[in-house]
Amino acid sequence: MTTASTTARLEARISTDLHSMLKRAAELQGRTMTDFVVSAVQEAAQQAIEQADLIRVSLADQECFAQALLAPPKQSPALKRAFKRRSKLLQAG
């Protein structure tokens, strides 16, 4: 079974200086200008998305941390046992 890939067209007006720079960079890498531009745009988009995700997770983590400080959970029996073992280990060392 063959899957058909769909494409979309992107057009942009750029200065002649930027066009020359992109053409030179593509030639240096032995790629077509289209391949070079698509690759660069894809990488920039991926970085922007990753940075946005990182910031969003970071803010959520900060909120969770602040909530835990303001209203810490009660110690479970397992946590109490772990603290006792830790104290014994620290006293032995």
UniProtKB/TrEMBL annotation:
Iron keyword on record: no
UniProt keyword Isomerase, yes or no: no
Secretion signal span: none
Pfam families, alphabetized: TacA1
InterPro entries assigned to the protein according to its UniProt record, in alphabetical order: Ribbon_hlx_hlx, TacA_1-like
SUPFAM superfamilies: Ribbon-helix-helix
Keywords: Toxin-antitoxin system
Protein family per UniProt: Belongs to the TacA antitoxin family.
Protein name: DUF1778 domain-containing protein
Species of origin: Ramlibacter aquaticus
